[in-house]
Amino acid sequence: MLLPFHTPNRIEAGCDEAGRGCLAGPVCAAAVILPTNFYHPLLNDSKKLTEAMRNLLRPIIEQEALAYAVSFVNHKKIDQINILQASFKAMHLAVDQLVLKPEQLLIDGNRFVNYKQIPHTCIIKGDGKYASIAAASILAKTYRDDYMQKLDKKFPVYGWQQNKGYPTLAHREAIRLNGLSPFHRKTFACLPQQMELFNDKKSQE
Fold first, then answer.
1. Phi and psi of 17, rounded to 5°?
2. What is the CATH number for 104?
């Protein structure tokens, strides 16, 4: 069972992101403040849930949360400042949008950049330990998936409807055949040199 809070009698916001490992599209972060008595039997780390479960939980979280916010940092900014810093920036932007000021941030992962002197605690695999982080992981994931599905309509060759920009074999093959889209992260190894060499050799046989 997920823990309802980390520190008693404090307004805690769980923070998480989605899309760090993608080759295309933005990184998305969410911050969620839940009532301490919030409970739903399906609530868990978004990666352990099906898409249908995440979509079921999203409106429940949005309705029951004391405050929530979602923010994006696009692919261009990711290329400028790197994906780790872009993830921190997305979390900062989400925290900024909360209508209720948190007194503590619970961060999924082991690193964070202190923000506006709000105390924070980094928790490895926190999305499977604390309800507010799990809720944030679900919002970040579903909002980003929605964005990539809309983008897929403009660039259907990359299969973003299915892979959401993650580096699947089919996605990499689509990049090899069609080149990079305007939404790919140019600083990422979208097409590893080994794959290029393999395909060049294969074409010469």
1. -130, 165
2. 3.30.420.10
Q: Look at the chain and report how many structural domains it folds into.
A: 1
Tokens encoding 51? 């898409």
- Distance CA(195)–CA(201), nearest Å, equals 10
User: Which residues span the domain enclosing 198?
Assistant: 1-205
Owner of token pair 């839940």: 34
Cα(115)–Cα(96) distance, rounded to whole angstroms? Answer: 10
Residues 11-24 pLDDT 10s: 999 999 999 999 99
pLDDT the model gives residue 77: 98
Residue with tokens 């924070």, as numbered in its chain = 120
Sequence letter at residue 12 = E
pTM here? 0.92
DSSP state of 117: T
Distance CA 186, CA 182 (A): 9
Q: What is the Rg, in whole angstroms, of the alpha carbon atoms belonging to the chain?
A: 18
SS3 percent helix, strand, coil of the chain, rounded to 5, is 45, 20, 35
Residue 116 pLDDT exceeds 80: yes
d(CA 145, CA 111): 24
pLDDT at 165 over 60: yes
- pLDDT tens string 61-72: 999 999 999 999
